[in-house]
Specification:
- The protein is mostly helical and 186 residues long.
- It has one domain.
- The strands form two sheets. Strands 1-2 form a two-stranded antiparallel sheet.
- A hairpin with an 8-residue loop joins strand 1 and strand 2.
- The chain starts with 22 loop residues before the first helix and ends in a 15-residue tail after the last strand.
Length: 186
């Protein structure tokens, strides 16, 4: 083996040789070595993310509450419009009812299932709702009809109770709304 005298092998290919570093090589060398983050930098970033997340959580909860309240208002409006449409159909003679009846349906499901049109020669059905909306504050395992508190026509407004018909509906939830009112009073 013949060795060259005075010639040293490059210790690491691509790296500048010791003692002969130009300013351009120094910039390249320092950038290639400092590509990662230090532990302190990572901890600072994680702490900042934690502060941002803790500040955003109340806003997220407020947004979810507002969304559920909006959904409750829409569901109540839909149900009450269906109940009123049924009452108007009874008054117009399209739905037959006994003389002592209030003119409101016996159940909420009747609005979805439909009733025979008394004026139609082939007993065509009249439907008042496509589907029964559910109370967004009720447990998810309950069927939609069981999520509502029902009020009969003959019950007073300050003490609503179920009866032989469905005059009105309200939420069963004891929670307070964002405006401070109780959801069950809507």
């Amino acid at each position: 083996m013949a060795e060259s005298v005075g010639v040293r092998e490059d210790p690491a290919p691509g790296r500048p040789k010791p003692g002969r570093i130009s300013s351009r090589d120094r910039d390249v060398y320092s950038r290639s070595e400092g590509r990662g983050f230090t532990l302190i930098e990572m901890l600072v970033v994680l702490a900042m993310l934690g502060v941002l997340a803790s500040a955003a959580r109340p806003l997220l909860e407020l947004s979810v509450q507002r969304s559920r309240e909006h959904e409750l208002r829409q569901a109540l409006r839909t149900l009450r419009n269906g109940l009123d449409a049924y009452k108007h159909a009874v008054e117009a003679g399209n739905v037959s009812a006994s003389p002592d009846a209030s003119g409101y349906p016996q159940t909420l499901q009747l609005l979805v299932d439909g009733v025979a049109d008394a004026k139609s020669p082939n007993n065509r059905k009249i439907y008042f709702l496509r589907r029964l909306p559910r109370d967004p504050f009720a447990p998810a395992e309950l069927p939609a009809e069981d999520t509502w508190e029902l009020r009969a026509y003959d019950s007073p407004p300050d003490e609503p109770r179920a009866g032989k018909d469905v005059f009105d509906v309200h939420s069963r939830s004891e929670r307070k709304a964002l405006d401070g009112s109780r959801l069950k009073d809507w």
